[in-house]
From TrEMBL, chain A:
<keyword id="KW-0547">Nucleotide-binding</keyword>
<dbReference type="InterPro" id="IPR027417">
    <property type="entry name" value="P-loop_NTPase"/>
</dbReference>
<dbReference type="InterPro" id="IPR003439">
    <property type="entry name" value="ABC_transporter-like_ATP-bd"/>
</dbReference>
<dbReference type="GO" id="GO:0005886">
    <property type="term" value="C:plasma membrane"/>
</dbReference>
<dbReference type="GO" id="GO:0035435">
    <property type="term" value="P:phosphate ion transmembrane transport"/>
</dbReference>
<comment type="function">
    <text>Part of the ABC transporter complex PstSACB involved in phosphate import. Responsible for energy coupling to the transport system.</text>
</comment>
<keyword id="KW-1278">Translocase</keyword>
<keyword id="KW-0472">Membrane</keyword>
<dbReference type="GO" id="GO:0005524">
    <property type="term" value="F:ATP binding"/>
</dbReference>
Automatic annotation (TrEMBL), chain B:
<comment type="subunit">
    <text>Homodimer.</text>
</comment>
<dbReference type="GO" id="GO:0005737">
    <property type="term" value="C:cytoplasm"/>
</dbReference>
<dbReference type="Pfam" id="PF01895">
    <property type="entry name" value="PhoU"/>
</dbReference>
<comment type="function">
    <text>Plays a role in the regulation of phosphate uptake.</text>
</comment>
<keyword id="KW-0963">Cytoplasm</keyword>
<keyword id="KW-0592">Phosphate transport</keyword>
<protein>
    <recommendedName>
        <fullName>Phosphate-specific transport system accessory protein PhoU</fullName>
    </recommendedName>
</protein>
<dbReference type="InterPro" id="IPR038078">
    <property type="entry name" value="PhoU-like_sf"/>
</dbReference>
<dbReference type="InterPro" id="IPR026022">
    <property type="entry name" value="PhoU_dom"/>
</dbReference>
Amino acid sequence: MHKIESKNVNFNYGEFQALHDISMSMKENTVTALIGPSGCGKSTYLRLLNRMNDLIDNTHMTGSILIDGVDIYERQTNVDDLRKNVGMVFQKPNPFPKTIYENVAYGLRVNGITDKNEIEERVVTSIEQVALWDEVKDKLKKSAFELSGGQQQRLCIARALAIQPSVLLMDEPTSALDPISTAKVEELIYELKNKYTIVIVTHNMQQAGRVSDNTAFFYMGKLIEYDKTKTIFTKPTIKQTEDYITGRFG
Amino acid sequence: MASHLETELGKLKNIIIKIGSLAESQVSEAVKSLLSEPGSENKELKKTESKIDKLDLKIDDICQSVFALQQPVASDLRFIMSAMQMSNEIERIGDLSISIIKLTKSIKEKHELISKFDIAEITSEVEMVTLKTNQCFENLDESIIEDIFRLNTSIKTKSATAIENIISEMKNNSKTVVSGTHLILALKHIERISDHCTNIAESVYFMINAKTIKHEKFTDKK
């Protein structure tokens, strides 16, 4: 069974159809990169995976998206539970105006965990998972804003992991970071796939090559080609994909 | 934690060491065959040849992936470029060794000709040059490069003398023409093996120093 499966997904912002008949599936513990030019629908598709588009007025979706075999757009789906299972990391690091420790602990408390020991254990584990522990262990009580951009982004990833999701969505997670921080986040993504299923939107094709197992190329709301990343970057079958990855597009 | 790229490069290095050692064993078999010692069974040689071919393809595959997906730069880029080059050279060393073994089967009175023309010294040097080449790559030890070039020169000089003597023998004794011709071809193959070793040494030098020393005399190279 696939971890994530989309079947004939169409999505509209009002009259504008942003996605056309997207069908694709993702295996557990893989990294899938969504690439394509601006406005191709990759972020829209990503946000469908934890129903973030529900928050936008005048939108409409048809088709189905299954996670662990369950249609997440069924009426009985609890959206809060879905978002606990499907964490998200955004383009710009967006830590809360709280201490480093509280940034990770906050989500746990909101989700009803009150046991101090459990909170502490999960905070430490999550910060360790993102390879940030050595850098922050002595300043957990300091403001998260004192961290560098790259550290803040890794803290945001730790915050998402603390809730123990099984899927992690990343919307251009390194576009606001310098090359060193980008490399750290990319290595982290590579490590995290052992435990999580990751879907990442990136404008950086080289990044897609470096971090993902599979790559989907979107263009004008359509899924043009979806295959192993190595295949996409060495012998794509569709000319549009070849033109895009070789920079000869348009 | 080691980066994904570092892991891939480590994997690549291990495969090159493995393929290098397989080629080295093929050279030893070729030498044994030439010196009339019982060599490995054909089946075993073919198995090794097939292993070398598979590893050669595996190296191409990893290099292609690393180029396409990891965008290597600086020392990583030089390593990948060299790996592709070295894999070709090593694969050719294996093929040439097999050709030597095939040739030696048609050399009659092998023992007599070998001792007459000092071939044993040349074969001992070709074994040494392949061993040193593998050591040079495995330890990225550029101090060995000079030895490799010296051995290559020595092999060429001794081989040229041996070939001259074999031709004279063939002129004087027409019965030796077939064996002599095969022996000359085997010596030429040995020279080529040694040349491939120097090419690998040049790649190691390029890897370490970011300087190409191809098409130069080694003394002018540094």
